Structure prediction request, 240 residues.
Amino acid sequence: AIAIQDLHKSFGDNEVLKGIDLTVLAGEVVCVIGPSGSGKSTLLRSVNLLEEPTGGKVLIEGIDITDPDIDIDRVRTRIGMVFQSFNLFPHLSVLGNLTIAQQRVKKRSKAEADKVARAMLERVGLAEKADAYPGHLSGGQQQRVAIARALCMNPDMMLFDEPTSALDPELVGEVLQVMRSLADEGMTMLVVTHEMGFAREVGSRLIFMDGGHIVEEGDPREVLANPQHQRTKDFLSRVL
Ligand code: ATP
Ligand code: MG
Prediction:
């Protein structure tokens, strides 16, 4: 589980997160929506300390990762992260991309890492692309490789930051399908997305952020059909 308690984050005198409280329980899929600049990415990046909070706490499975004595690299290996840009190594094959961290961080043998990588490629529907280079794959395929790469580390939870926003519309579905199957398998997921259909159908909960606050949260169907706050209504009327 992820427990975020009164999380604050400032860049200089720009306070971007103004006291966020959010818990994601094991197996939950929590989707986050909100206008550009509302702090969604900063929130996600704070969960694995890519951004250092300026106040509050983040507990991962009960461990306070803001505690300076914690081994953050060890915590990070339990959290998979997928970004809008796929960040694959262009000079490595798909298999190379999927095995490098397994060997370096998990200390797996080449054979073992290959085996895990091929299993994860199978899971995202790209078993036949093991030897391809990222530049020869479509955006949707590259993003599925990025998801498979994260899964190779056997994470307990996955963070997604607008994983389909950089994709051509016709490639969005294949990535959402992989995310949906992960959710069905019980993966704990925190997902920043503009895909309201995904949020509605897959999300256990929907969070609307604005101005560094959680303005509204609840059952995705409820929030989307019947938003309670004016700011949520305004946002949804613009995006739906
Ligand atoms: P978008 O929908 O456009 O991705 P977002 O909700 O993810 O927006 P953030 O990326 O979290 O928003 O940014 C929130 C605010 O924090 C913005 O005003 C941004 O300029 C600022 N910010 C983010 N990262 C940094 C940084 N490294 N240094 C300074 N300011 C930053
Ligand atoms: Mg963002």
